[in-house]
Amino acid sequence: LLSSLDRVPKVIFVTAYNDYALKAFDVNAIGYITKPVDPEKLKKVLSPLIEDFEQRSHDNSSRETLDLEQQIFLKDGEKCWFVTLKDIRYFESEGNYIRVFFNEEKPLILKSLNLLEEKLDSSYFFRANRKNIVNLKHISNIENWFSGTLRITLRSDEHIEVSRRQSSKFKSIMSL
């Protein structure tokens, strides 16, 4: 089930079997606890989640939506850029990193796509699938694709497939 989701939630497996631990971590589980549950192990697995939640609830900047005209600072290795959000065509997840596509550049930054999505204005940026967030202002064409999906063509002639679930969401958002 987890491997078929567009957005994978944070999951801790609690089971009587330790045979599936590797499969659990293949779908990015944050923990795997065998029964009977040891309260100390549970606390250890939950602790980072609780700290992260508390940090985000106290950090006002993580709740602010970035404006399309806002410039953001990007650093990849020794190279640095100030980029206006409207100039970014799309973001693509690569593990724990995000590749940012703008002009002829494709820097890689350490950030999760889910956290980035929370900061982006949904009236300009759309989560097309598990790997991509697209700037709606850069779309030149949309076509029906295979099995109820859509294919977006950007003005840069790049193509991004919209997942089945996100295709229906896209249609309802973009329709009159």
Account of the protein in words:
The chain is an alpha+beta fold and 176 residues long. 25% of the residues lie in helices and 33% in strands. The chain has four helices and twelve strands, in the order βαβαβββββαβββββα. Strands 7-6-5-9-8 form a five-stranded antiparallel sheet, with no helix packed on it. β11 (150-154) and β12 (159-162) form a beta hairpin. The radius of gyration is 19 Å and the shape is globular. The chain starts with 11 loop residues before the first strand and ends with a helix. The mean pLDDT is 87.
Short description:
The chain has 176 residues and is of the alpha+beta class. Helix content is 25%, strand content 33%.
